[in-house]
Amino acid sequence: VSGSLMSVYSGDFGSVDVKGNIQFAIDYVEQLNELHIFICQCKDLAVADVKRQRSDPYVKTYLLPEKYKLGKRKTSVKKKTFNPVFNEILRYKIEKDLLKNQSLNISVWHNDTFGRNSFLGEVELDLGTWDWNDKSNKQINWFPLKPRTSTMAFELENRGEMKLALQYVPQPVGGKKILSTGEVHIWVKECHDLPLLRGNRLNSFIKCTILPDTSRKSRQKTRTVSKTTNPVFNHTMVYDGFRPEDLKEACIELTVWDHNKLVNHFLGGLRIGLGTGKSYGTTVDWMDSTSDESALWEKMIKSPNTWVEDTLPLRMLMVAKLTK
After folding, report:
1. How far apart are CA 214 and CA 36, in angstroms?
2. Residues 200-234: pLDDT tens digits?
3. How far apart are CA 171 and CA 179, in angstroms?
4. What is the DSSP string of 239-259?
5. Which end of the chain, N or C, is surrounded by fewer C-beta atoms within 10 Å?
């Protein structure tokens, strides 16, 4: 699998021969219901930027296969070193029982200024067979980095990301509306590393719907930005009629599309809400925000009249159908 997949995706991962080791420890902290991954250091990493003979490594983790639910965690970037020391803890809030069905994917990447990050190796642990009571499993250990094998992580890497900012304005100035409703402002700034579906041309635009309203009037979209996988939109959308309590029930669905004369192709999307699985008391499948997505929404709710910003990884979504 890895051989054939590697050739498909080699453009995204660079073609660095994997070498070196990573040192880390994992532990489950019962009091906090958290999985802690202590990333210590790496040794003898491969050269990612051959021209400048350097690597700027960072480490990224996912829990698979529920990769979207909990999102990724990553360390800071260490510049110009093949032996980076991180000493950082990456945390996942997750019930211990759920770990039985998970694998932990830890990968090392070279951070490239132009967003073409190169893969430097990975380690995958099956948490289903992990003995949490074995003291030696809590100790810091060295693991050899391996070439890419995880097909799950392939799908993950391949959608790009979106930089956006949100703001809740409780009482818009000059509004004649009842004072208790406010506006949600969505500022879509740019996307990075969008996947090329056909050839080397990409003409992308973004659609926005505020669920549960799937009517045409709820849908707004940006202009199309041509011929780039890193489009800059700088487009702000405003939705009004939000009472503070509506913010707990609503969810912003942002989807990125490749514009084509015949049919637009879906590239990836975000759903930004509380991710509770429910809206106004009804169970809905679209209330499925990742921890990073819901963190941004919570931040917006807690800081009215202030822009809050993040760059979030795009993911596969079952896009909500439009109603009349």
Report:
1. 39
2. 688 999 999 999 998 888 899 999 999 999 999 99
3. 6
4. EEEE-GGGGGT-EEEEEEEE-
5. C
Task: Record the tokens describing residue 121, joined without a space.
Answer: 């190796």
66-107: per-residue pLDDT in tens? 655 676 788 999 999 999 999 999 999 888 888 888 889 999
0.90 surpassed by pTM: no
Sorted by where each starts, the structural domains of the chain and their CATH numbers stand as 6-149 (2.60.40.150), 160-314 (2.60.40.150)
Beta bridge mates, 282: 279
Residues 66 and 4 sit within 8 Å (Cβ to Cβ): no
Q: pLDDT tens digits for 127-162?
A: 988 888 888 888 999 999 998 765 555 555 568 899
SS (H, E, C) 101-120: HCEEEEEEEECCCCCCCEEE
- Cis bond upstream, residue 212 (ω within 30): yes
